[in-house]
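Ticket reopened. Same input as before:
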Amino acid sequence: MFYIYCPYCGEHREEEEFHPKGQAHLARPENPDECTDEEWGNYLYFRDNPRGIHHEIWVHAIGCRKFFNVTRDTQTYEIKESYRMGATPEVTHANDPLS
Amino acid sequence: MTQTNRLNTGGRIDRSQPVTFQFNGQSYQGYRGDTLASALLANGVDVVGRSFKYSRPRGIVAAGAEEPNAVFQLGATEATQVPNVRATQQDIFDGLVAQPTSGWPNLNFDFMGTFSKVFGRMLPPGFYYKTFMFPQAAWETYEKYIRKAAGLGRSPRVKDADTYDHMNQHTDVLIVGAGPTGLAAALSAARAGARVILADEQAEMGGSLLATRDQLDGQAAADWVKATLDELAGYDHVQLLPRSTVNGYHDHNFLTIHQRRTDHLADKAPDNISRQRLHRVRAKWVLLATGAHERPLVYGNNDVPGCMVASAVSTYINQYAVAPGRRLVLMTSNDYAYRTAFDWQDAGREVVAIVDSRHDVSGRYQEEARRRGIKLLLGQGVIEARGNKRVDGAVVAQLDPTGDKVVGGGRVLDCDTIATSGGWSPALHLSCHTGSRPVWDDEVIGFVPGKTVQQQLVAGAVAGTFTLNECLKEGAQKGAEAAALAGFPSQAVKTPSTEHWPEAKPMALFCVPHKKRNSRAPKQFVDFQTDVTAAAIELATREGFESIEHVKRYTAMGFGTDQGKLGNINGMAIAAKSMNKTIPETGTTIFRPNYTPVTFGAIAGRHCRDLFDPMRYSAMHEWHVKQGAEFEDVGQWKRPWYFPKPGETMQQALDRECLATRESVGILDASTLGKIDIQGKDAREFLGRVYTNAWAKLPVGKCRYGLMCHEDGMVFDDGVTSCMGENHFVMTTTTGGAAGVLEWLEFYHQTEWPEMEVYMNTVTDHWATMTIAGPNARKLLSELTDDINLDRDSFKFMDWRQGTVAGVPARVFRISFTGELSYEINVQANYGLHVWEKLFEHGAKYNLTPYGTETMHILRAEKGFIIAGQDTDGSVHPYDLGMSWAVKEDKPYSFIGKRGMKREDCVRDYRKQLVGLKTKDPSIVLPEGAQAVDDPNHPIPVPMLGHITSSYYSANLGRSIALGVVKGGHDRMGETVYYPLTDGRVVEAEICSTIFLDPKGERQNV
Amino acid sequence: MSEVINKTVDEATQVAIMDQCPTADVPARSPLAHQDQSSKVAPQNPGVFLWEDALKTHLVLRGDANNADFRQGIEAATGLDLPEALQSTQSDDWALGWIAPDEWLLTGPGDQAFAMETTLRKHLSGHYAVINVSGGQTLVRLAGPEARSVLMKSCPYDVHDRNFPIGKIVNTVLAKSQATIRRLGENDWELVVRRSFADYIWRWLMDASGEYGLHLGQPDAATAARQSNPSRANPVEG
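Engineering reply: fixed in the latest deploy. New output:
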């Protein structure tokens, strides 16, 4: 049971209030119609499965209904940070010394 | 029976309050303050169960959660049965009824006992895997009897008489364990002002201080306990939870506490009070002060009743005033356990000898033993217990200095109790629950909690700190630290102290060697609950199981309800020695939740029966109930399924509802459809991106049907969206899809197109929606409104109008899911029932007929209208559905799903396509899910063409109708396919249009 | 009400508006109208009071909190400050609670929905929305010395004084549904619940209140006075 900081409510809330929405920072291609099947398939189906730092989207579904990003360690389940849509993470795989 | 082992003085029991209880069909007496275990020992009950595999008689070994043998079935009635209760943690009360869970057919004789005496050598580890697996079909028979003989307890066969509930807690500091460490910690944290929860699994808080004869600052330790608890109870930011086991430590400092609120009071809880409560705790910081479990030594026949853990013997004497025997042999590898011999002697019983495995040891404890005239046998060990249902002797022999082998001949000491101590294993279970691996500490001779990512501190014995003074100090200090970390700057409280006797270095001894090899020696039990012996562990390592996790699984060590609290470390040591490795080299063992068994009731809480899941009601629900509707679950909604009249079968009711609607007028409660209010200047563009069809030109006052696809191009929801104003739309979704669709829309708005000016809110519950459908719908509506022009040329199909219906402001949508002339009337839900009833007042003359979801399904299937989620399954795109008319390819923005439906796989031939199906025999209704084949006589595997998605009997058409997907179906009109059914029949059906009735749509354009 | 003209579309925003309350004498049924809401035999010293504050106006307001015009418009129309995150503001008749960074809930007298919506639209401009949800939700009130215990049994959010002072508003899980919980007083709480879930939540709260002594209905003056002394011996924990 995670305890997740909602950057919009400014509080930690119980996991029950949230829904996970998968990997973060996947931009929808500008021109989907011009994507090859392979490019589109990569966007649609292929996801990272890192051991360690992972950026993911959550929505405060039973709360403020806002989507935001979470940086989570997939080994320890530690949540390193929550940040709003459009922001960049401070903790990344590159700068986290433990992962 | 009398309490033969009860001491005349001392203990914390109340001799003025006798309590009568039953065990194994016999009545016993104990005192208030007794646990079931202490009361049984007081009564001289030696055998409390039979062992799992060998069916050997077993007695009480320990005094706490680690007890492996005295695990009982409780309950005076069938409805109050509880399995797996540890007698050491159950208070007695008048009328308590306990049964041993093991020992079928009975405690004194059983078939397994005889069986295993004869075949004992044939029950090696893996025996069950190796033997009962063949023939496989018989396993279910074997299993029933094995389980019964093994004694795994059972749940009640009738409805539980009690209730259970949950309590959500938040705290700054959760302290687990209210022994000396936990109490001192709680004082520090509480005085700092932090919110504190102090939880302890025993009935009384105080832990080892309740059973010690040590004094604190010259006062009885129990006095300090009382003063401390009194102070803590006085703080309103402190919560004391006795009888509450912290059972699980989960991510982000979420812990579950299983509180037994009334188990000590009576068989059944008082009315309105839950028997047990599960506290769901989110703690800023956790301090584990869980103490340690004393390790028994492993030796031959060490499971004979009368063999006990040394500290447990002291606890029974000091806390419960029970001396569980007459003549004690104490065997130890450390000084501390000498206290048990002293307690025993001071209770007026005979200490036959202290057998100490260390050769060269002298200090305060040895001095005291000699002063007391107790025989001290150094460098020796108890290699074997004698006796059957009770110890009657201990075989003692000289050991070599490392404790690896017996070097002298044995002799028998006459005794009835053997207490042993191999040192203490920190009770680090909770620290493992979140994945932290324990680390071996040679000083402690045990595992201590390892690194963790949790906000967790440890103090006292669990951290390897064993002396009372140090535990108190460390508790006070760590309690202050936890409070400070949680934001409450704090200082450690001053703790009392006791006179400390220096202890000589303990010896790392786990299994006392026998004269014979372990495989030939009398059974040396490591895990009592699963009957795992030292020899079995050695055999497992010889058979190639090198990792301790594999050894555990092969032998079943640690797999009982006690999770091997007493035996695991001994087992690891034996495995390590057998492989010539160190203990840490064999790996560590991870404990998992729950620490002790939790009732299902406590886990479920109040989420059961009528409160199991929300039941969502529309504003007209009361009316449906009164009309005797049968209900169907759609998501969490209770929707009327059909409205049977007295004596009607379901099919008769459906036929009547269908015919009445097409012949005159029917009414459906459509309130459950999802409704999303969309406002903002970009609302129209937004719709164009999320729907597959065009929205740019839909005028105000008009409605349009739309399909929604995911990025993969597959349909996931549909509905009608109406243009309320140039910048205002109301979208409808399927009943079950409502919440998901809104979240999906928000996802795109918030993550992909945050620049779009649009606000979306659910108005599902705000509007009550009633659909009147049928040739007389206009006539009926005209009687209830005078401000809407219902003229067919004014209020056209797919128009909506605002007006007043039955005196209530309404939005009326002329849309149709039946193919009939149809109006959806929306009023604010508080007036829904009023309008509904007015419709019936006026509708009687038109035979206004309420219909439910089933008739709705039939009527829409007659028209070939799909239901997203029934006729689609996430692998169907709009073209598969024959709905290319609902896809607008040339919209400027590449709408969600557009690219997906262009993937190679989506544009290929021979995809499964939705078609209508008419069975050759019109009376046969195909089962949904039936698979189509071209040739039913084709040898297996038969190529599958697709399946039936919707299938009904249509009273209007006088025949069955079905929708289904068939490979290449759109090009196979008029062809025949076959549906082989599970009952052997093969049903022949003709592929046809999905529209069975009124293909030109004339009925709704009137 | 007399000044309000029932127009179909608001000119400025091009959004459909509608006075949804009937003028004729039409009975309204609140979401909990079917529940018996009065204790026939009230317990001696109830720990919990439970009642429905039915048929109020509920308007969802959407807009940009950082837009001064929006803030001022809300304040001018409602007389209430636009509350910050997780806060609420309150006048005699109206309460305004924060729901999300761009969403607030305005509750007030039941017959004022359209008048208030019209007033709001008069004072607001730009990108905003007003959505009437009066039929879609109701207010459940929970009071008494053990009201907080009932909430602890029901929702995972921390309702302790230190985390949930008077005036705070939180949308969270309640049993297996959800509620927007606002603390009105020391022992006085308001739950905004959706119509379709109201029956389930009502039954859940009745059940959770059982052990504390439940009085269905508002406390009278005398009982309210007694509530200021919340010490009750717990029959089990002692």
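The two ends of chain B are 93 Å apart (CA to CA). Chain B has a mean pLDDT of 94. Please confirm and we'll close it.
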